[in-house]
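Quick one: structure tokens for this chain, please?
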Amino acid sequence: MSPKGQNQPVRRSIPGLARLPRPVYGRVESLPNRALTYRHSHPWVQLSYAIAGVLEVHTDAGRFVAPPQRAVWVPAGLPHRVFSAPRTEMRSLYLDCAVTGWAPAGCRVLRVSPLLRELIRAFSALPVEYAEDGEDGRLVQVLLDRLSAAPEVDLMLPLPHDQRLQQLCRSLQQHPERQETLAQWSARLDVSEKTLSRLFLRDTGLSFRAWRQRLRLLGALTPLEQGQRVTDVALACGYDSTSAFIAAFRQQFGCTPGKFFRA
């Protein structure tokens, strides 16, 4: 996501909890500005769910992007930062590792089904120290069950470890509309095009072209969710035409921009 045209970051508070009062702890946030947390980690799992707006979690491995009805799962102990688009409505769940033994390792983006959404909404209304052996405790168990079944979605931009690629990727993230070819970047970085292509595949699992396309499409989610015209978003992302942008969007996400947000 390019910072151009965005409000200045503001520091968000992070719960100063020595331990969770219950195995699952909830937090509701309305974020009026583009927000940034400093790099931090938790001794528990964090699920950050965007009801409205677009949420991003950045780790050393990559950027994990959650438009509405998606959530980012952050494992315990993983250093990360959280960004959000203006007017984001966010629900955070903090989960004790003792109740998430089913979860695979690593940060990931999950799809939030209508049932899971309503369970999170209902949980947000419970008292912090809910009765674990009563009705509230049973609701939490169903919530955990539905979380374990939530499908992962491919809304992640992998980031490289190689310093030369990091320089290239930082520049593209700041200016996704630029059209420099891999050959031009290889000349700028004083490395062969073949080596640069091999490094991209090794560090990100994607070709240079596929990585740049994913960067552009993930960056397009915030302006699209805010109601900007598809044509304007396409041009800002570096596409020559609206039809080319929609074709790339459909290839990446399996549907058009309009259907993506209606869903």
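The radius of gyration is 20 Å.
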